[in-house]
Amino acid sequence: MMSVSRRSLWLRMIYALCLLGATYNHLLIVAEYDWGWNYGGLPVLVTTFWTALTLIDPLAIVLLFLRPKAGVIVTLAIIVVDVAINAWVGLTYGIDLAAFLAQVCFLIFVVCTWRMAAQHP
What we know:
This protein is mostly helical. It contains 4 helices and no strands.
C-alpha cells in the first residue's frame, strides 16, 4: 500500500502537470495577442482572470511542492473559479466543448482528491 506522503506527492504531480498544460496555453495566447487581449470582445473581468492565470497557474505549481497544503487549496480555487467562469462564457457566448469537458474532468478529479493531496507531513 502506498504511503500517505507518496500518494500526496503523486496527486500533486498530476495537478502540476495539468496546471503546466494550462500555463502553456495561456502563454501561447499572451505571446500571440499580448497581455491585454479581450478574446474577441468578452467582458473585462473574464479576460483579466484568464490572462492572470498565466501567472497564477505557475504560482500554484510552485506552491504544490514548496507549500503543499497551500498549493492544493490554490489549485482547487483555480479550477472551481475557472470552470464556473467558463460555464458562464459557454452559455452566454459559446465555448470549445472538448476543452471545457477536460476542465470539468480535472475539477472532478481535484474535488475528489484534494484532501489526500493536502496530506503532507
